[in-house]
Amino acid sequence: MSSSAFLCLKTNEYLPIFILFYIINACQAWLPDTSTKLMNSANKISSISFRGNGSNIPDHFTVLYQDKDSILLGGRNRIYNLSIYDFSERKNSEIFWPSSEAHSQLCNLKGKNEDECQNYIRLLFFTSPGKLLVCGTNSFKPLCRNYAHKNGLFIAENESDGIGICPYDPNHNSTAIYSSGHLFSATVADFSGGDPLIYRDPFRTELSDLKHLNAPNFVSSITHGEYIYFFFRETAVEFMNCGKIIYSRVARVCKHDKGGPHQSRSKWTTFTKARLNCSVPGEYPFYFDEIQSTSAIIERKYGESSTKIIYGALTTPDNAIGGSAICVFQMSDIEEAFRGPFKHQESINANWLPVPDNKVPEPRPGECVRDSRILPDANVNFIKTHPLMERAVPSYQGRPILIRVSLNYRFTGIAVDPQVRTVNDKTYDVIYIGTDDGKILKVVNIASEQSSKAFVISENEIFPRGTPIKQLAIAPGYGKVIAVSKAETKLVTLNHCKSTATCNECIELRDPHCAWDQLKNLCVSVDMATSLRYLIQDIKRGDASRCKISTNEKVPRKEIDDDNTIPSNSIEEEPNSNAKELTLQVENRSDFDECNNDINSDVKTGCSQIKKSEFTSGTLWWGIVIAAMIGLFVGFAGGYCVSRKFYMQYNNAPFIEQHNHLDRLNVNQNSFLARPTKTVNLDVLNVSSDTLQPKKDNLGSLKNLNITNEGTLQKIKKTYI
Ligand SMILES: *[C@@H]1O[C@H](CO)[C@@H](O)[C@H](O)[C@H]1NC(C)=O
Ligand SMILES: *[C@@H]1O[C@H](CO)[C@@H](O)[C@H](O)[C@H]1NC(C)=O
Ligand SMILES: *[C@@H]1O[C@H](CO)[C@@H](O)[C@H](O)[C@H]1NC(C)=O
Hints:
- By secondary structure, this protein is of the alpha+beta class.
- It contains twelve helices and 40 strands.
- Helix 7 crosses helix 9.
- Bound molecules: 2-acetamido-2-deoxy-beta-D-glucopyranose (3 copies).
């Protein structure tokens, strides 16, 4: 016992070192991305700021709703209606809804401060045309209101209890979605935040059952098919080693769940959940276990086929070295995990094992059925005790599309401008990633069926250092993003086309929003272009060789394709080459790739399949010239291969900087290792799993009374009632 405790202690003390080791180990297979094309400081970015009512008290902003012309922003006692184009405030169609005097006094008596005893608006849904449901924290006594919406004006109609729908505390990570005439929420249903639940009146997850929810932080909710999916992170019950660990999950319930028979009338009969696996593969996979944010569902086209995916931003734990990743999950893989075996633990210390098929009752638990009230008890009991699926949801292609290791920031939010069309009719997802350090990364997903990769276009300082970005949303116009922090919301323009001066810079930016206009000699935003005819782009490779084509012989866009076809690789890119004029047609790009794969083998033979330019043979003189040319070329190709190898490894190193790649390798690794170690909290061990659990069903007991749990508060209540 003591020896195992000792081992625990050791493992935890050395956790950062282990993690470093794992990352380095993983690096051999997959290097964290280090390069960014553009670094923009705050003064280089045009943005419009909104700070609520001008006071310094944080509004706890949240984007509640967005349409093509306005956004509704939830704040302190208010819902702001802002123009999505210029953030101008429409004061007329603003909702002002403070807590009543009685509620805020009660809140003060419960020991909360002035700032907490306000009504922070967290949810807003159009339940039918012209009808709104709005919920707020209401001084730690969640409350909902129905509003009628006429000509941009809101008229309050009636109020209803918000417990189980809206959090008590604006800092709580909750989510909700309105679908098929019902509100589905994932939040906490008690004052202290100890009763997490997924709720749709009257169904809820089991109270105080760690198998159902264990100190979750909810991230997002989406509707897909017959189910509502919830993304969150929670303490993993199935983790059997010492200490505790947080896993990312996706849970789902059937939209038309009608509850169970008899005493399970107010319980879900379809609540199941699975782990999300965002990891770098290897002998010891390196996991990014804490989901922070997801995008909406995106329909992505790969050639002929299309697939529904969701992007997730996941990180390492707070006390580890800051690692963040973007993983893509396919909806079909999520569904597959829910079709797989359930996880089962025989007794409290037994291992978690898959339930054999013959032990799973019929009809299969967790699936939508016509009327769940007539399900057999065996079925309902099974799902109650086995909500966890055995298999984790793999990320698309089994690895993240982007990894960042940084001591300065972690990813916090994600928003995707889906399927941006290039001038060649290709589509790419542009991803915006918010960090806890006030930055937004603009990234393009250049993954194809064969490879998974993303390219970081720019890193932009939006908020002062140390201000986490809580939420991101896409606004109309290429590069327009809404960034939300606790006390400030900004409409930011991350369109970098104008900031590049030359064709090379424009193409190498690889931003699907930008293209080089050969007529105007300008880098233009594609959504502003009147014609695509003279625009060039190369998102996939950022190959600027087409810029060399003189403007007199402008190439109509048909001939320009940034995919599939093979660009002419001109030696002109090699600055010191004597063979400047020699242009070689490369038969197949994979020739290069092949030789890149094996640097140790004879580079010359490995790369020799590259087609030689044609020549007329005959004279000895010509023979010598050509031999010299070939010699030159082989030398170049060898050099090219070596540099490509490092180029591939170091991903985004600009091609021109071929020299000193070996030095770069050393510098990179050294600096990676030699960074000052952050002070890390080593007290993981001390956290015991017996977190505060309420003994009562707060939903039920709090429905009628204001407060019942807190004994001391009984008196307060009496003074008020
Ligand atoms: C926001 O304000 C505009 C202008 O007053 C109004 O037309 C629009 O309906 C409002 N949006 C919402 C969602 O209330
Ligand atoms: C909510 O999530 C944020 C970001 O991950 C985290 O910093 C914060 O502590 C969470 N809030 C609560 C109440 O756990
Ligand atoms: C997660 O994915 C990695 C790589 O695809 C795999 O090696 C690992 O076994 C998976 N882990 C789980 C828990 O499924």
